[in-house]
Amino acid sequence: MPPYIQDNKAWGSGQWPVASTEQQRFQILALSGGGFRGLYTAKILADIEDQIGAPIASRFDLIAGTSIGGILALAVALEIPAQKMVDLFEKHGEEIFKPRFNLFGTLRSAYSPEPLKRLLQDESLFGHQLLGKCKHPVIVPAINYSRGEPQLFKTPHHPDFIRDHKFALVDVALATSAAPMYFPRHTFNNNQYVDGGLYANAPGQLAIHEAQQFMGQPIESIYVLAIGTMSSKFTANPGRNRAGGTFDWGGLHPAKTPERLFGVSISVLETLTHKVLGHQLAGRYTHIDDALTDEVSKAVALDKADVSAREALLGAGSERSKAFLGSAESKPFLLHQPNPPFFYHGPNAAKENM
What we know:
Cytosolic phospholipase A2 catalytic domain, eight-stranded mixed sheet, 12 helices
């Protein structure tokens, strides 16, 4: 188990301290889903990397991410600079979320997956690399709609994980982010996949199970840093029709009904996860996020990528990262030195297993 070590240098000295006393620790980075709101997450990651002068993955034993958080988790596990992901979303967000004709959602999803796929296939990002190329352990949830089951894509950090490392990173990214009504189901390996946010929009709970069940970690050693996407709360309007039909849920456009149900689902499940983990880890769970105010919520949404959305997300992310980096609880997370990752299969497999 890698030690968390630090010396007695004062935190206010202007430099990050270096290690000297040991404390066992297993750290998880958990990144939530939220569509274009992931720009907020990416900004926080980029600011942390700028502060520590290293890839954020170098401070964590396991990375987990769902939907846009899954795309970011894969990038983090590859040690792609988070600033590169910020630049990607800033420059191409409106291209990714460019509406297409869909006859009020009855013919097809609101957005095509092709722009995102093209961007991720750039050789400076995922290119045609496989999941096995990740330099750090990572798990990414999706739903296997062909089987009606949850599915976790994983690096080969356990001897039984013999297949996922052969999957293309772009396929895993598109599978975890195929939000119903927003993007079509993603098909590969002769299966259809849907957004993992429907059951694990905040993947910290899954990551804890992974650490205990497959990585041999006692719960007492586990610490989680979870980063959200400016959480939205979907609540009832007491003045609205409450009869339970499509007009109640979606208003004048029936296609809005599944979109709102999707939003309610991920919002409530995420809140539940944070409450449970706060109790389960008892002081070892740190959650970075911002609640949307009434005015900001008008500019920010899962599929809003215009200049107002970018300003709101980047500004909030910058302020939240500043608060986190200036807090005492950030220091143990960002000083942690994990053991070198150990993979059993694929291109990064340990030599003794080859």
